[in-house]
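Structural biology now treats backbone shape like a language. To illustrate, our science desk offers a sequence and the tokens encoding its fold:
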Amino acid sequence: MESTKTVMVTGNFNVLHPGHIRLMKFAKACAGKLLVGVFSDQIAQDAVDNPQEMRMEALSSINMVDEVFPIDTTLFDFIHTHRPDIIVKGKEFENLYNPEEDILKIYGGQLIFSSGEVGTIGELPIKDKSDISQPATVFINKFITRHNISVTNILDIVDRFSERKICVLGDTIIDEYIDCFPLGMSQEEPTLVVSPQETKRFLGGAGIVALHASRLGASVRLLSVSGCDEARNFAAAELEKYGVESSYIIDATRPTTVKQRFRSQGKSLLRVSTLSQQAISSHLQKMVLSQFEQAASKFDSIIFSDFNYGALPQPLVEAVISVAKKNNLFIAADSQSSSQIGNISRFRGADLITPTEREARLAIQNHDDGLVVLADKLMRQAGAKYILLKLGAEGMLAQHADENIIKPHTERLEALNQQPIDVSGAGDSVLITSTLALAAGANLWEAGLLGSLAAFIQVGRVGNIPINRDEILQVLS
């Protein structure tokens, strides 16, 4: 039997994002009827830049929401008028003073704290799904209109990529895609039997970031640690082919990382990784630092592409960031966490960080707060100016703070490709494209849009194939 109780959620809802959906899903599960209160323009004032009508319309389109009301009076009077049985607030408010409790005590209502279930939220539960099948250009145009972005200015930013001088520092990885023909099940044990048909190799890790940068027009130097093996030779040849200057510090104790993906009929069957996760020696760290110091004045940006395989120990990271700041370089960092290892906040002082939600929660050991609060806390811990919080199929949250990192502002960027073929290189394309844009003078919304366009292109094909500027211009045209 469906509950007759009502539950209420209130807020500004300046930009509707997955964190809001999670909170409302939790609230809806608490009662039969979900009411949403939206602070009016008069009350929200500078905390919003989208008008009240637009914010309410977005909420009204959500299938689980039963009624949406403007809050144009005191919160006490608003709650007294609607008298919900339950009010749900984000987990971050649990240990603070909550004025809702004063009125709830009068009539016996309940206040519950939750930020919803951590993880992906699946399909956006909207009442009118006509927008879902629309092309990426529809979402792009809406975003451009909302932020008063000039397409001409975006094109100028892409043109200025050719003026950028980038150093990419991190792990060299070779991705092998082994296409297999399925033969059936083994008769001896319950194992799938396949026959390898074709092997394709792509440069991954810091290498593909460098290749993207070069194809987008920038001058690039890759600084990395590798083994003395054929995989390293392949990487060096690929970099040379695309005009990337590479400097490899050879570590005879470790292989160059190779990740194999066995695939059949467009699906991955098995992944096999050959790698070492031990930190490089202090001697090798000094060699890497020395090479960076000698060339730092030639760069305007540095990108850390970290996979936590030992190529970037913390002393090296801190020393490189110190040199970068002395040379006024723009600093960007991505740190992928394969298990419970990884901390993006260790790149303290980076201008831009691009973690996944999982990587963000690992960094600050926070599995309760909503997405906006999570991003804010991580920015504070990392001392970052900008964050692009990657949410997989749910797109990204772009967030920046003022000079004191007190008042963050957030925007959601859609996942533009609704039918991705291979998502493995999406993060690298976002990292390099948004970095180039910010270094070229773009604001975060412009940089985030270009990063989304790059991911849209990248996930539409198998393997890490470098994106070129013409592909981005074609989507924008």
